[in-house]
UniProtKB/TrEMBL annotation:
SUPFAM superfamilies: HD-domain/PDEase-like (SSF109604). It comes from Candidatus Galacturonatibacter soehngenii. Keywords: Nucleotide-binding. This is HDIG domain-containing protein. Transmembrane segments: none annotated. GO terms for molecular function: nucleotide binding. Residues 62-178 form the HD domain.
Length: 206
């Protein structure tokens, strides 16, 4: 199977399947995933995460959970295909940024790195710049839920407010946060409500 054919097959399942993880768990073992550019996805299986924040295990386990959560909500987004590809690729920056610091597993800047990697990945298969940029924006801003709610200085909130719909970033962030073992809907929905409220307040001040 060519890379283009594999991309199309993955796209079809992301858009059509109610539980895309079933297909993804099977396809990840194909030989094509050992080669560029799909090796970026395969490396998620080899990248461990903090057991405190991600008791579900490696990045691939987390990604499968996020993709399934996104599949439940994709039709609430203006561009469901971008929403689903972002769910699949949102943590591809983790393999190259994950390090052990003071005994803890960290992946600083994986959102920024991941957005660049996703741009390069998708550009090999489509010329649709709107789609590519939408996917990459979801990836770039997916950590802003944490940054905004906890008052952390790592994000770029003015850029988020300029480039994205806060409600859609919040929806994506909900899927990301629910893609963890033992996550509860009520708690994560409350976190998302805080994010939206603070973003709206910041938007009014601009």
């Amino acid at each position: 199977m060519s890379s283009d054919e594999l991309y199309k097959e993955i796209n079809d399942h992301l858009i059509s399947d109610s539980i895309p993880s079933i297909y993804l768990e099977k396809v990840i073992e194909r030989k094509e995933f050992q080669l560029p550019p799909f090796h970026l996805i395969y490396q998620l299986k080899l990248t461990e995460q903090s057991p405190i924040h991600h008791p579900e295990g490696n990045v691939w386990n987390h990604t499968l959970l996020v993709v399934d959560e996104a599949a439940k909500r994709k039709n609430l987004c203006k561009t469901p295909s971008a929403f689903m590809w972002a769910a699949l690729l949102h943590d591809i920056g983790k393999p190259s940024t994950t390090k052990i610091r003071k005994g803890k597993i960290t992946s600083y800047d994986h959102d920024k790195v991941g957005a660049k990697l996703a741009y390069d990945f998708l550009s090999q298969f489509t010329k649709d710049q709107f789609f590519i940029n939408f996917v990459c924006s979801f990836i770039e801003f997916h950590m802003h839920i944490l940054y905004v709610v906890n008052g952390l200085p790592y994000g770029n909130i003015p850029k988020l407010l300029k480039e994205m719909d806060v409600e859609e970033v919040a929806l994506f962030g909900l899927c990301d946060r629910l893609g963890r073992k033992h996550a509860t809907l009520e708690k994560e929905e409350n976190t998302i409500k805080q994010f939206i409220k603070r973003c709206k307040a910041l938007e009014r001040k601009q």
